[in-house]
From TrEMBL:
Residue intervals of the YspA cpYpsA-related SLOG domain: 177-231
Source species, domain of life: Bacteria
Annotated Pfam families: YAcAr (PF10686)
Name by which UniProt lists this protein: DUF2493 domain-containing protein
Amino acid sequence: MSLFGAPTTSYDHVTGLANDPRPFPSEGEVEHLGHALMTEILDTFGKDAMEDYASMIAHCIIGGIHAAQQRIEREYDRATNELTGLHREFDGSEVKDSQIQDATDRSRVFEAVAVVLETFRRSAERTYEVQTGDVWTPYRGSTSNRLTTFAVMEAGETLRRKRQHAQKGAEPTAKYVVFRGVQAANTQADAERIFAALDYAKAQCPDMQLACTGNLGSEKIAMMWAKNNNIIVHKSDFSKAAGRRAPFVANDTLLNLKPVMVFYMPTPVNPLNERDAEASGIVLNVAQKAAERGILTFKVAAAAKIAA
């Protein structure tokens, strides 16, 4: 199971359109590079005297890749503007036709390079988020997502979900999948198990929306998966007024959404101590209540498969 979820065909589609005799690196190669680079940075600087600065260094590395992507995208925008002007002025002559073809080739190459850099950045970004529990964001502006744009163009269902997301609200008839898990589940092994579970949920319910509390550890990883898969997230925050019962009240709030499935992770895949090895009563609570209501309930366990 790849840390980054199911591969997309958009990468091959975009790089395949570029008119360059030299091949582009494969999507897997670029993803591996981003993952290996960020892992090495965090392993090297995330200890001893450099520990306090590891996050800053990682942010700057990802930001540098993002800056390169933005520069290429500006070139792409200029090429497409030129192409638009040539189409407007087209007179049927061979000269104009040749100019249009050249501009088309340039724009497709810039698009392909931008997609390669986006894939590189996203791979490093996801590795950083999974290994640190922190979410990378650019210092200014926002990140574009050309791969998602192509997927949207090719899939009407994805376009519908993006419209829902833009409305910043969930439909009353939304199909929710609840995920509840422990904070201690925050390693790559945990991420792979969580991604596999949610990939299964999405396969069963393509128009799902994820519901969780957004707690640290496993639920942050679940939200990263949702972000990577363009899934709307409904977050049920803890109510301070509920005091010690706040986590249980959050469980009830999630179940009141009438989810189609509930996934729960009561322990990490590889517990580091006896405390982590003991199943969380809060997480077991949501599983018990879901089962009592007749909701399909799945345990995200240490085994290679999802145990029901």
